Amino acid sequence: MLTYTIRRLVLSIPTLLFISIVIFLLLQLAPGDPMAQVPLTVPPEVKERMREALGLGAPIHVQYLKWLVQFFWVEPQVLIDHWFGTTFSEGKLRVISWQTRSPVMDIVIQRMPQTLWVVGMSYIVGILIALPIGIYSAYKQYSVFDQAGTFVSMIGFSIPPFFSGVVVIVIFSVNLGWFPSIYDTTHTVTDWESFKVQLQQMVMPVMVLALQTTAQISRFMRASMLENLNQDYVRTARAKGLKESAVVLVHVLRNSMIPIITVIALGIPSIFGGAIITETLFKVNGIGQLLLTALFANDLPMVMTLTFIFAILIVLFNLIADVLYGVLDPRIRYD
């Protein structure tokens, strides 16, 4: 397993380099000009000097190599300096946002807690609700519970977040007044009262996002459980006199979790990517909203960095899912 993991990590390097080249070239071909938002009163020669200061006058390959060095060499040094108080990155040019003129990674780190609070919590809540629903729906196939779970899942699949978000705002914020409709990103948790305020403003966006997660994972869980419940090893376990709970929750569940691990692991990068529509709807100042504003402003360094971080997370959690296969199923070997 260790050899396989090392081999996959080594192979991921050219994969990520190829992904970065594709992302960079696609962004270069995208229409728009980062200087379009500069006031018309600014003289053309000043605009040209501003373009050169942003690095827009350099050839494409020079811009790409410059970003590559900044992302893989300078930014890790900044992180080391922050952790250990060293000065390795002092005086070195970092990846700078064209829109804010600030280091991209600093902005990402500032926005990350809000995204993890909302999107991360909704993903955890969705998984914790979806797994029991999927297991019990498969065990009680065609029962009232199974039909109700199927109905709720269809709603979660069918209703987009921009519609369900507006509905919960109208019901729980406007009409009932239970929860705030706007997420206060400046709120800090210092005691129990502030923690309750944080939970109140998280309820609606978490509810909207968790509905989609629950709908997706519960259907996968149900299908996987149904496939394994009819296998020969289940009948053998029951014939040996094992308790029904042991048969379902130990033997069947362990084999059924193998495809679910892929769904869950590949969904984790979306947590860090944020939920663009939901964050915009509830005014959550997170990564999703940051990516949206960067796209509108044609902020190529910001978009390039964020999309490449998402690519790294996808490759990483794909590897984690493959490793977990071997943990859950001893028959799987990567020798």
Structural class: mainly alpha
CATH architecture of the largest domain: Orthogonal Bundle
Radius of gyration equals 24 Å
Distance between the termini: 7 Å
Q: Main sheet?
A: none
What is the chain-wise order of helices and strands?
Answer: HHHHHHHHHHHHH
CATH uppermost class of the largest domain: Mainly Alpha
- Fraction of helical residues: over 70%
Report the average pLDDT across residues: 79
How many DSSP E strands?
0
Global morphology: globular
CATH superfamily of the largest domain: MetI-like
By CATH, the topology of the largest domain is MetI-like fold
Proportion of residues in β-strands: under 5%
Count of runs of 4 or more consecutive helical residues: 13
Structure write-up:
- This protein is mainly α and about 325 residues long.
- The chain folds into two domains: about 40-95, no CATH class; about 110-330, MetI-like fold (Orthogonal Bundle), CATH 1.10.3720.10.
- The chain has 13 helices and no strands.
- It has helices spanning about 1-30, 45-55, 60-85, 105-140, 145-160, 160-175, 190-230, 230-240, 245-265, 270-275, 275-280, 285-295, 300-330.
- Helix 4 (about 105-140) runs antiparallel to helix 5 and helix 4 crosses helix 7.
- The longest helix has about 40 residues, at about 190-230.
- It is globular.
